[in-house]
Amino acid sequence: MRVETTWERDGYVLRSAAAEDVDAYWEAFDALDPEGMRLTGSVPHTREEVTSFFLRCVDDPDRFDFLVVAPDGRIVGESVINEVDWEARNANFRIYLFDVGGRDHGLGSWATCATRDFAFGEAGLHRLSLDVFSINPRARRVYEKAGFTVEGVERDAIWLGPEEGYCDDVLMAILEDEWRALASA
Questions:
Q1: What phi and psi values does residue 22 have, to the nearest 5 degrees?
Q2: What number is the average pLDDT over the span 145-157?
Q3: Nearest 5°: phi and psi at 54?
Q4: Considering only CA atoms, which of 144, 88, 172, 82 is closest in space to residue 119?
Q5: pLDDT category, 102, cuts 50, 70, 90?
Q6: Which numeric CATH code is attached to 6-184?
Q7: Number of H helices, E strands in the chain
Q8: What is the mean pLDDT of residues 70-86?
Q9: Is 89 exposed, middle or buried (0-12, 13-18, 19+ CB in 10 A)?
């Protein structure tokens, strides 16, 4: 389902991704920082891999891809609803702020809440889930503030490499009625 949606905050824009964003998206993705990659499990990819995946996502009816755009026009992150099961009205959520300078200023919280509100208010979902590595408490706090609840933990599910070993994968979700209670508070 293709949508054109835009939110604004302090000069930043969260908007629907479009095919013409492909080159700017590659530039942002190509500059991922090691710490962000570690906290999210991201791995390097070639330009062809990234751009072909991005273009497939833009046209996929079972996902919504939003880009976080800085006041200077650079793409500094993405907020994504994917793996939509329209019959069950369930989906997965993920967010990544590519630019280190965009972290710790409330940008992730804003984009998470805007995307969550879209998921329930516009897309008509019943459940939105995510997983977060136990080594990423900052992200977990963002999700908890946005109303996501821990549903379980996959112990030692993530291999970080020989120096760090394993970490847990924390499963979280928010349901439609929980979102409604948040929205009315």
A1: -55, -45
A2: 98
A3: -60, -45
A4: 82
A5: low
A6: 3.40.630.30
A7: 6, 8
A8: 96
A9: middle
